Amino acid sequence: MSAAQEIARCPLDDLRGGEGVRVPSEVGPIAVFLVDGEILAVQDTCTHEDASLAEGFLEDHVIECPLHGGQFDLRSGAAVCLPAQHPLRRFGVRSDGEFVYVTT
Ligand code: FES
């Protein structure tokens, strides 16, 4: 089995303000969040239409899409509020205390 491949990175300090961070990657933009000390990464583009979830509204581990208010649980990727119906792709993360590395 091959190791998870690193596809994006961002400085850990960028997450500390509580806002989502949009990071480009070879599989499309990824939104990275720091929630209660846990780093969570999902696809940035909403599964409903074309909106950046990094610009959404974060409450606990739920991100609300800025365009139509659909909501997703960042821990599972599940859509939890209409009009969002399809789950987000989730990504692995690790950090060395300076950078966050997003992996497949
Ligand atoms: S684009 Fe996200 S809920 Fe419509």
Helix percentage range:
under 10%
Q: Which strand order do you get reading across the main beta sheet?
A: 1-10-9-4-3-2
Distance between the termini: 13 Å
Biggest beta sheet attributes: 6 strands, antiparallel
Structural summary, described in words:
The chain is mostly beta strands. The chain has a single domain, classed as Rieske [2Fe-2S] iron-sulphur domain (Rieske Iron-sulfur Protein), CATH 2.102.10.10. The chain is built from no helices and 10 strands. It has a 6-stranded antiparallel β-sheet with strand order 1-10-9-4-3-2, with no helix packed on it. Strands 5-6-7-8 form a 4-stranded antiparallel β-sheet, with no helix packed on it. The radius of gyration is 13 Å and the shape is globular. The two termini are 13 Å apart. The mean pLDDT is 95. The structure holds FE2/S2 (inorganic) cluster. FE2/S2 (inorganic) cluster is lined by residues 46, 48-49, 51, 65, 67-68, 70, 83-84.
Compact overview of the structure:
With 104 residues, the protein is mostly beta strands.
